[in-house]
């Protein structure tokens, strides 16, 4: 589940759980909660808004709720539930790509599989240097990648070697290496520093008072293949506010 708060011009979407060790798995209720929060932020956006996504505890997110899938009681039922979650999560990535404001992922713990994908759906990713890893676990657990996951990594990770290590080697990547691989904007030594740096960046971006619709369309135009997979149209928009 998640909460949405606003601090000045900055929306803060926080993945919440029942304890400090909650993995923030994305089952149907959590996915619906995230989509609702993003929709609320979009509805309340003004020129100069920005959004930070963060979490409570040691995990940013450990991905889709595999326990819920396995609780179906049969292999066929588990597969059906997993595919349902995969398709339910697609609109989350689409909503992030279409959000009319700059976005920052404050990754203060482990981000695996769909959790890593959510982080990478933001414009900027900031993570901890001392704790937490980025990890795409699919090859380890024996599951192929959804088309929009692959399209996102092609769009956002410029190095073919980095994509290979992330997706085919299932490498667990800590902050300093993630920075050198171009996966994150910055890495810091504590949860507090990640939070402060993310808010500082979000406020700087919000301070530019860009027209949100224009920002969203420029973002989408940078990643046309990904937007095609997500079913997002790219439109020409002119804002008259500064002409």
Automatic annotation (TrEMBL):
* GO terms, biological process: fatty acid beta-oxidation
State the protein's name: Delta(3)-Delta(2)-enoyl-CoA isomerase
Q: Which InterPro entries match?
A: ClpP/crotonase-like_dom_sf, Enoyl-CoA_hydra/iso
Protein's pathway? Lipid metabolism; fatty acid beta-oxidation
GO CC aspect terms: peroxisome
EC number(s) from the headed UniProt entry: 5.3.3.8
Q: List keywords of the entry alphabetically.
A: Fatty acid metabolism, Lipid metabolism
Q: Which Pfam families match?
A: ECH_1 (PF00378)
Task: Provide the GO MF annotations for this entry.
Answer: delta(3)-delta(2)-enoyl-CoA isomerase activity
- What catalytic activity is recorded? a (3Z)-enoyl-CoA = a 4-saturated (2E)-enoyl-CoA; a (3E)-enoyl-CoA = a 4-saturated (2E)-enoyl-CoA
Which family is this sequence assigned to?
Belongs to the enoyl-CoA hydratase/isomerase family.
Q: What is the lineage of its organism?
A: Eukaryota, Viridiplantae, Streptophyta, Embryophyta, Tracheophyta
């Amino acid at each position: 589940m998640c909460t949405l708060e606003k601090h000045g011009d900055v929306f803060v979407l926080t993945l919440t759980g029942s304890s400090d060790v909650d993995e923030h798995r994305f089952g149907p209720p959590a996915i619906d909660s995230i989509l609702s929060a993003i929709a609320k932020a979009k509805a309340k956006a003004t020129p100069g808004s920005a959004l930070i996504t963060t979490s409570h505890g040691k995990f940013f997110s450990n991905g889709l709720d595999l326990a819920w899938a396995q609780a179906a009681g049969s292999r066929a039922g588990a597969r059906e539930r997993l595919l349902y979650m995969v398709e339910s999560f697609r609109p989350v990535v689409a909503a992030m790509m279409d959000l009319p404001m700059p976005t920052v992922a404050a990754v203060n713990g482990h981000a695996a599989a769909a959790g890593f994908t959510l982080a990478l759906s933001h414009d900027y990713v900031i993570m901890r240097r001392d704790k937490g890893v980025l990890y795409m676990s699919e090859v380890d657990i024996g599951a192929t990648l959804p088309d929009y996951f692959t399209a996102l990594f092609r769009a956002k990770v410029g190095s073919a070697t980095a994509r290979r290590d992330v997706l085919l080697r299932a490498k667990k990547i800590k902050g300093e290496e993630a920075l050198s691989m171009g996966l994150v904007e910055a890495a810091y030594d504590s949860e507090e520093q990640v939070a402060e740096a993310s808010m500082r960046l979000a406020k700087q971006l919000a301070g530019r008072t860009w027209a949100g619709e224009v920002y969203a369309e420029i973002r989408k135009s940078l990643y046309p293949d990904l937007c095609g997979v997500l079913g997002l149209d790219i439109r020409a928009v002119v804002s008259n506010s500064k002409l």
